[in-house]
Amino acid sequence: MTAVAFKVKSKNGQQILKDLTSDSTVGELKSFLCSISDIGFERICVLCGYPPKPLDISDNEKKLCDIGLKTGETLIVEEKCVPTSTPTPQETSSPPKKKPVENGVASHETIGPCRPGILMKKVVPSDNSCLFTSIGFVLNGNVDTSVHTLMRQIIAMEVASDLDTYSEAMLGKPNAEYCTWIQQPSSWGGAIEVAILSRFYGLEMAVVDTLNAIINRFGEDKNYGQRVFLLFDGVHYDPLYLEQSDGGIQTVFPAEDMDIYREAEQLAHEAKSSRQFTDLNKFTLKCMVCDKFLTGQAEAQKHAKETMHMSFGEV
């Protein structure tokens, strides 16, 4: 039997729980968490891990060691949204509220004080078009690896129409050369492409950078009414979404919703602390022209300068 300590996050702030052992039961844990969070025993929900996932606390007799809890874990305590079984006269006379739809994705608006869900990462293929697939997911709610073709065309048309803004100094290559390059399936997207697609779709795109534990906001100065989140680990992009208890998802959020923004910030910090990012000096690339394997960004840049090969793939 060993003592355990947990960092607990709830609506009442952050606290350290140190009064339990590995042999303590789930019921004892729930009792402590209820007292900390002011949430009823039957309505408490505990999230753990990265990204945070619901912890199975249904069996009150199980020991903490049996459900995989280890000392030092961060526990997020939330309140389950339990529908009222007997509606009030006002509820029966009022028409049901419809869930708003944003870009084809139901927002699953929740009535009452309960938080609507947890922020999750959707893993998309590492096929050099992960940025475009991720943006397609937050727009439409599904993984479609073919959307990159249209998005690459949109970017090329925008760049070709503004030679002053999109100069060689900005693009790293002549305007016309860039327009040809970006339409190739092997070409990666980055900040320039995110900025263009943010304007095209009229959405703020918040890129959660786990390498530096910051959020880069594209379209922030445009005062767009809606925001989407993308996760970037230094090389690869994945979309973020809010998972509801009913299985639904939300990918587009009101720009004024700072609760979800702060949750994304917390996710960035936790990902960095657990080193869930790609070290640009060590990751492996493959030259798609000559099939040479290269280690790190600097080696890839050197190879490109020496050979003029500009097409690289993730390994």
TrEMBL record:
EC number(s) per entry: 3.4.19.12
Reactions catalysed, as given in the entry: Thiol-dependent hydrolysis of ester, thioester, amide, peptide and isopeptide bonds formed by the C-terminal Gly of ubiquitin (a 76-residue protein attached to proteins as an intracellular targeting signal)
GO biological process per UniProt: endoplasmic reticulum unfolded protein response; ERAD pathway; protein deubiquitination
InterPro entries xrefs: OTU1_Ubl (IPR048857), OTU_dom (IPR003323), Papain-like_cys_pep_sf (IPR038765), Ubiquitin-like_domsf (IPR029071), Znf-C2H2_OTU1-like_C (IPR057766), Znf_C2H2_type (IPR013087)
Pfam family name, one: OTU
GO MF annotation terms: cysteine-type deubiquitinase activity; zinc ion binding
GO cellular component terms, A-Z: cytosol; nucleus
Group of enzyme by EC: hydrolase
Keyword Zinc-finger listed: yes
Name of the protein: Ubiquitin thioesterase OTU
Organism: Diatraea saccharalis
